[in-house]
Design the sequence.
């Protein structure tokens, strides 16, 4: 709404509050959505957060009791209009921004129980990617386990479980899920690539080579092909020790500064 975009908290609150007692379910739902935005206005700040990669980051976050108030409004909106996907997504977004990952897991479980629209599980999978990008691998794993419970044998969900386990260095478990993901979706280049990476990380070199090549053969997006060709070229250089072939791959996929296989071999220091 315009008043929220203009950061006019008093104006937005004055406009939305009367509709909280409306006899119209639609108007009442929209009022709760509006008020969730209103109470969050002025509640953001910088948040220092550790991650599961051993580092941390400073990011914008929602803080304070306003988060609880906003969630209460969205809970009320969901109770009124359980098939309004935007409310479910808004609740997950706020909890993510507040760093309340355990509550995110509970919220998506509740949402998956009540929301039956055609755009799931993809609508929930977006948060898996966001949590992964934030290097919150444990939260991403628990979130995705909930999706697996509600949408079993989905290759994207199974593949994400494998990827998150791989990030957490739980290699044996990761391989189980990654193998299953390529069985469920044999033409998916991402799942095939992730399986190749896991074989690479665990020094199963021939299997890694097989799945990298399989993945590249399935890719259709030029940017994806270029980036993956570069990574595969580096694998060929460093793991297969075939500099000539690696140079050809790196020329096709890597920027000039990354084409190490094409550089002259330096003589051993005397």
Sequence:
């Amino acid at each position: 709404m315009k008043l929220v975009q203009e950061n006019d908290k008093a104006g937005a609150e004055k406009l939305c509050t009367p509709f909280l007692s409306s006899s119209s379910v639609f108007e009442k739902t929209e009022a709760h959505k509006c008020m969730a935005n209103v109470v969050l206005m002025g509640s953001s700040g910088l948040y220092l957060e550790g991650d599961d990669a051993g580092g941390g980051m400073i990011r914008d976050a929602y803080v304070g009791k306003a988060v609880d108030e906003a969630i209460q409004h969205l809970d009320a909106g969901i109770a009124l209009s359980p098939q309004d996907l935007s409310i479910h997504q808004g609740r997950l977004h706020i909890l993510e921004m507040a760093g309340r990952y355990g509550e995110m897991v509970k919220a998506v479980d509740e949402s998956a129980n009540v929301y039956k629209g055609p755009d799931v599980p993809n609508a929930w999978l977006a948060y898996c990617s966001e949590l992964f990008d934030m290097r919150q691998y444990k939260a991403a794993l628990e979130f995705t386990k909930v999706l697996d419970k509600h949408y079993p044998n989905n290759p994207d969900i199974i593949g994400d479980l494998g990827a998150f386990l791989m990030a957490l260095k739980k290699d044996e478990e990761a391989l189980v899920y990654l193998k299953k993901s390529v069985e469920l979706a044999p033409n998916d280049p991402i799942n095939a690539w992730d399986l190749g990476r896991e074989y690479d990380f665990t020094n199963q070199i021939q299997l890694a080579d097989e799945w990298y090549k399989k993945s590249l053969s399935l890719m259709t997006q030029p940017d994806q092909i270029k980036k993956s060709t570069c990574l595969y070229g580096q694998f060929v250089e460093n793991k297969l020790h075939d500099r000539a072939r690696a140079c050809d791959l790196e020329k096709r996929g890597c920027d000039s500064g990354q084409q190490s296989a094409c550089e002259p071999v330096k003589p051993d220091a005397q």
